[in-house]
């Protein structure tokens, strides 16, 4: 199992694993704990090491390759925890970009380096391409 | 400015502020920092103390009262950081419940108690009422 010296090392491995459809690399990024969770677009909440292993084995064994580009938005980091807000943009099978989604990747410093404890996606409002101005209230 | 001794105290104040449309209470929950962010359903990403103040002043000055019920799903806590996953269910103006959304509230321990650094919403898949089984892969 590789050891990730920084949150960014773990994040690089996460997106490399997606790109390579590499299940073992993907699972090496996640903390070995039941206090982990994954919220993908249009999927149910998945919690705990066992369920997250099942989820990613199913997703990455599929024939549907993800072509994802990632833009960094903001890092919120303390000594033992790191939150990375990113914008993910998925290319459809026809090569046209789809609407971006936000993701927060939260990492925890463990005895075995930095590990992912939460991956949470949030879709962007229709027509949005990047962080915009504050919208009017309801 | 009140001091929140635990992440849960801060979270209670957050949802009380929503319920009471109390802008000052809402702003007392957020960390006084530019390393904070808020991702509401169908809103642009809002980052930093100034923009978050503007956002909540606009939202909470509206006449549209939120009737929100919150269910705890999972806590991921370290000495200085706490992630609370909750399910939020908003009642519509006709009293009928709408689809739930997930939220992650991330708190940081500061010199002035626990403060919110990230509020991120994610909608649930259509027809979902609570965390369900792992879905089939694509």
Q: Could you explain how this protein is built, in words?
A:
Two copies of one chain form a homodimer. Chain A has helices at 7-20, 23-29, 49-61, and strands at 37-39, 46-47, 67-77, 81-91, 101-110, 113-123. The first copy, chain A, is an alpha+beta fold. A six-stranded mixed beta sheet of chain A has the order 2-1-6-5-4-3, covered by helices on one side. Residues 129-138 of chain A have low confidence and may be disordered.
Features:
homodimer, disordered C terminus, six-stranded mixed beta sheet, alpha+beta
Gap between N and C termini of chain A, in Å?
Answer: 49 Å
Report the biggest beta sheet of chain A as strand number plus sense, adding barrel if it closes: 6 strands, mixed
What is the percent of helical residues of chain A? 10-25%
Kindly name the structural category of chain A: alpha+beta
Q: For the CA atoms, what is the radius of gyration of chain A?
A: 15 Å
Strand order of the largest sheet of chain A: 2-1-6-5-4-3
The count of β-strands of chain A is 6
The backbone outline of chain A, from C-alpha atoms, is globular
Note poorly predicted spans of chain A.
Answer: 129-138
Which protein chains make the most extensive interface, counting residues with beta carbons within 8 Å of the other chain's beta carbons? Answer: A-B, 50 and 50 residues
Report the β-strand fraction of chain A as a percent range. Answer: 25-35%
Oligomeric form: homodimer
Which H/E pattern describes the elements of chain A?
Answer: HHEEHEEEE
Question: Topology of this protein?
Answer:
Two copies of one chain form a homodimer.
Chain A lengths: L6 H14 L2 H7 L7 E3 L6 E2 L1 H13 L5 E11 L3 E11 L9 E10 L2 E11 L15
Parallel strand pairs in A: 1-6
Antiparallel strand pairs in A: 1-2, 3-4, 4-5, 5-6
């Amino acid at each position: 199992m590789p050891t990730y010296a920084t949150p960014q090392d773990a994040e690089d491995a996460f997106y490399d694993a997606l790109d390579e459809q590499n299940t073992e690399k993907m699972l090496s990024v996640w903390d070995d704990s039941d206090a982990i969770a994954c919220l993908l677009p249009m999927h149910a909440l998945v919690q705990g090491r066992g369920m997250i292993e099942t989820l990613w084995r199913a997703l990455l064994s599929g024939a549907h390759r993800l072509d994802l580009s990632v833009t960094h938005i903001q890092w919120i980091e303390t000594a033992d925890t790191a939150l990375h807000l990113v914008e993910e943009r998925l290319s459809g099978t026809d090569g046209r970009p789809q609407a971006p989604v936000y993701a927060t990747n939260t990492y925890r410093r463990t005895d075995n380096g930095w590990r992912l404890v939460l991956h949470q996606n949030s879709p962007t409002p229709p027509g949005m391409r990047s962080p915009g101005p504050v919208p009017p209230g309801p």
